[in-house]
Amino acid sequence: MDSFLRFLKISRVLMHYRLDSLILSTPLLKSFKPFLYLIPWHYFPVKNLSRGERIRLALEELGPIYIKFGQTLSTRPDLLPIDISLELKKLQDSCPAFDTQSAKSLIEKALGNKISALFTHFDDQPLASASIAQVHTAITLTGEEVVVKVVRPEIEQLIAGDIKLMYSLARLINNHPLSKKIHPIEIVKEFEAIINDELDMRIEARHCDKLRKNFKESSLLYVPKVHHHLSAVNVLTTERIYGTPVGEIATLKAKNIDMKRLAEEGVIIFFTQVFKHNFFHADMHPGNIFVSDEGQYIGVDFGIMGTLTEEDKDFLSEIFLAFFNQDYQKVAQVYIDSGWVGSNTNEKAFEAAVQKICAPMFDKPLGEISFGQVLLDLIQEAKNFDISVQPQLLLLDKTLLNIEGLGRQLYPQLDLWSTAKPFLEDLMKEKYSMKNTFEKLKEDAPQLFRDIPELPSLTINALKQLAKMKDINKLYAQQTDQIVKQLKENANKQTSAIFAGALFILSGVFAVNTLWIAGSISTVIALTFWLKSR
């Protein structure tokens, strides 16, 4: 019953923002678009909003989980049109605060003691309230100022219900060829993993500890200390920091902060996290970054962190350096050598597409180029050539776009590449130095010695398997055609059955509101879809 009521609320919001017409414009459902003219609310006026604005406003009205889902989608620009992706980046993670007494009860239950026995002072007024958690300031028994982050009550049940609905929609879309491009089930899985991690404050505490350790000897970035004895699964207590939000440019200038140095150090922090530590803050928007009065960066909110494989780091290093050297053929070759290229990819056509993207950029000074945008354009072009791109690279590109935007906000003349290029060149020299080569050989030697005696038999077996595969592939091709044909038939029937059910429900709603004509039309259409599903 709860799921049904939630479905009705979601339907109402979709209709209010005319997202029903947007949904029926997709390749999956465009054949049903004429039925829009039979729906009464289609003829009511709607505000002059872009499709991106309508989607963002609908997600904000649906509440915390959908705001977070929209924020997660904004990190996957490869899956969305650029106008929608940019609009989703505007989603603000600020929600109405929940009752302070509830927050106190949750903290007391999690930490096994009364608030008065845990803190000498606890501020009843929340410092901030977001989609997942709420933050209060407090003072510990030892006199340290802290912030206490507590997960919203009953958020797990709300998330579970909404994710269940998301999976239902994803499975419906997954029966359509469109799913090969947008991977709906994978998107929901990715969101589920991210949001479940954010619900566990112990994960954020570990992230905070690791990042703090990485920058312990550095003056570039300060990371607050975690108070583990005052933290639990749904409660995180960290040192309270004071600083100016990095987006408040006028305030920073008034405090005589060196803006050029601040912008360049932001770039160095990013490249250090990615290429040296292989552990980067993947949510570095201005709301999560502060600047101390001495001009040092301070980071907060470590729920989403990213890591890269050695192959990913090599890919990025080579892409960056190829671009610095204005070698677009090398840019294309790096993609091809990555192993992500499908068997049907036309490599020459891909090289031409890369040239088309890169050539206009090479006419500009490097200081005027947004490499984050170039990388995003390359990722979007890659999906048109049967080239898969790893999700962690998209997360990193989103972070790079944020860093570039922030850096040029602080110092418009920032030349990202004059800062980054020496860093990357030194990194590549170190990686391929004689010392590192010997270290790698030393590390891999035991496994190599174990594998060498088996090479002759493995080679003979591989050749035999190749001979067998020639005959088997013909049989597989026939079976695959039959399976695909059956899946298409099943998908069409399933879609019709779902529409029939939805329209029967709509007929009931019209009947309850004595809208007999609309109810009759809806019933007739529902019967048509039901017969089609048989």
Give a structural overview.
The protein has 534 residues and is of the alpha+beta class. The protein is 61% helix and 7% strand. The protein has 22 helices and eleven strands. It has helices at 2-16, 19-23, 51-62, 64-73, 82-88, 100-111, 115-118, 155-174, 179-182, 184-199, 201-214, 249-254, 259-277, 310-324, 328-337, 347-362, 371-382, 391-410, 416-431, 434-451, 455-512, 516-532; strands at 119-122, 128-129, 133-140, 145-151, 221-222, 235-239, 244-245, 280-281, 289-291, 297-299, 305-306. The strands form three sheets. Strands 1, 2, 3, 4 and 6 form a five-stranded antiparallel sheet that branches. Strand 9 and strand 10 (297-299) form a beta hairpin. It is globular. The mean pLDDT is 75.
Give the oligomeric state: single chain
Helicity range: 55-70%
Number of E-type strands = 11
Give the percentage of residues in beta strands: 5-15%
Care to give the gist of this entry?
By secondary structure, the protein is α+β, with helices and mostly antiparallel strands.
Please give the structural blueprint:
Layout: H1 2-16, H2 19-23, H3 51-62, H4 64-73, H5 82-88, H6 100-111, H7 115-118, E1 119-122, E2 128-129, E3 133-140, E4 145-151, H8 155-174, H9 179-182, H10 184-199, H11 201-214, E5 221-222, E6 235-239, E7 244-245, H12 249-254, H13 259-277, E8 280-281, E9 289-291, E10 297-299, E11 305-306, H14 310-324, H15 328-337, H16 347-362, H17 371-382, H18 391-410, H19 416-431, H20 434-451, H21 455-512, H22 516-532
Parallel strand pairs: 5-10
Antiparallel strand pairs: 1-3, 2-3, 3-4, 4-6, 7-9, 8-11, 9-10
